[in-house]
Amino acid sequence: MSDIVLSRPVPVTTEPPLIRSLLIGLALTFVALFLFAPLVTVFVEALKQGWAGALDALRMPDAQAAIRMTLTIAAIAVPINAIFGIAAAWAITKFDFRGKAFLITLIDLPFAVSPVVAGLMLVLLFGANSTLGGWLIANDMPIVFAFPGIIMATLFVTFPFVARELIPVMIEQGRAEEEAALTLGASGWRTFFTVTLPNIRWALLYGVLLCNARAMGEFGAVAVVSGKIRGETATMPTMVEMFYNEYLAVAAFTLAAVLAMLALLTLLLKSLLEWRHADLLAATRRH
Amino acid sequence: MRAGILRSPSPLPGFGLSFGIMMTVLSIVVLLPIGALLGRGLMIGPGELWDMVNSRRIWSALALSFRAALIASLFNLVFGLLLAWVLVRYRFWARRFIDAAVDLPFALPTAVAGIALTALYAPNGVFGQALAPLGINVAYTELGIWVALVFIGLPFVVRTVQPVIEELETDVEEVSATLGARRIYTLRRVILPTLTPALLTGFALALARSVGEYGSVIFIAGNIPNLTEIAPLLIVIRLEEYNYDAAAAIGIAMLVISFAMLLVINAIQTWSRRRIGHA
């Protein structure tokens, strides 16, 4: 056999090197044109008048009010979503009852609804021309074109994030550990805090991270419900639109750049979680 | 709900509390608003609803929303598969970085994406200037809507196909090669059928998201009635006119068409699963 000269074997489970380079090149070009170019544009446009211009834009009262608004929304909506997500995951994974699959479909439903339609639903429910809305306004508790409406809209569009991250993880982890803790005499709450919570903490953080990004960035639903009142109900994304429509490009892109940095931070933390704790996340790649 | 024939007994506590919290939040945040829309539809009545939707401007908007979403999702089907394949199977510089960047459209607020794409493709933008000599106008045309929806939908396809490629066993490919199949034949007849269900799921997710997309589209679309005005924008316009019934009619039409589309995709999925004989 030794006198037969064999060329270097080409593995049969991959493509020829030329094709491979071609495909990689194509993929990189696509990512550069469709993902990176828009991202870079945000920062380039924000700095068109230098750092001073960008900083001036951030000092505008409308911009500052919008930033405060967005932070407040996230601070309220994300914890509610997390509590709902934990409760839903506990009820769905620790007990057997009829209609569970249907319930999971209902929880996922908001992802299939256009944000604008979500906003429309809230206007129909709580708007001035509905019975409930009329009563609420008469009693000085307006929801549409006011702060509670924005919270409702944010809760709707972020609804499934935490629950759908926790449910697969908790199904996989089973009930044996909790049952053991109870047998050993731990109370229900103690079991939850010392057994369940440590098991799901990374998955919970992952869900909260995605929920927070969407809560701060939601545009369509919030635009419909909030009425976009400057200094009152305008959020960062809706303020971006208003600045942009008033040809205040630097202000619009500066606020957009702040949101983009937030998005990059989210991606960074998300990637760190995926690399470090892949085994504790629900099929790491799913959304 | 604590004790009922609907629930099998479990030694774990907290069913009443967790189920109660879940149902309360679900009802207030999701079910009541959806009920309000459907209830408004019932009050208006099917005949009236049809009359309200049956205008050239609304049909154009609905057709545009669904056509553009379909085209962008098909584009993402091809490039999403390419990206997923390259990210899983090849090793190259900055692979992990690119992998993380695929989720950018999930993390970047849609309004930010919208003004950035508009700045890029506007006649005086970097891409706009490059494409103008070729006679291609992207901003303020339907092409611009496609570009925005490609941006929005890409991660859905990549992230549903990627894990399936990761789990592919290479020995099937080796067998195929041993039996004399050329690589392209193996890819087409062995690998692609295995990926089909995931591809369809990714396609459906991207489509569902693109149909209702608003923030990234309205800046680049130009919003000319009958030409580049998407259905969600028309809802916003009707709401701004306080014409709630007309807005509800368009919203219901969108829900019905989306639902029908997802049913069709589901049917194709079931069919392809049965044909391939595995999940």
What is the rounded Rg of chain B? 23 Å
CATH fourth-tier homologous superfamily of the largest domain in chain A: MetI-like
Please write the string of helix (H) and strand (E) elements of chain B: HHHHHHHHHHHHH
* Major β-sheet annotation of chain B: none
| CATH architecture field of the largest domain in chain A | Orthogonal Bundle
Mean of the pLDDT scores of chain A?
Answer: 91
CATH topology of the largest domain in chain B: MetI-like fold
Our count of helices of chain A gives: 13
Structure notes:
The complex is a heterodimer of chains A (287) and B (279). With 287 residues, chain A is mainly α. Chain A has 2 domains: 13-46; 61-280, MetI-like (MetI-like fold). Chain A has helices at residues 17-46, 50-59, 61-94, 100-108, 115-126, 131-138, 147-158, 160-173, 176-183, 188-217, 220-226, 236-245, 249-276. The radius of gyration of chain A is 24 Å and the shape is flat. The mean pLDDT of chain A is 91. Chain B has 13 helices and no strands. The relative contact order of chain B is 0.13. The mean pLDDT of chain B is 90. Classes of the chains: A mainly alpha (287), B mainly alpha (279). Chains A and B meet through helix 1, helix 3, helix 4, helix 5 and helix 7 of A and helix 1, helix 3, helix 4, helix 5 and helix 6 of B.
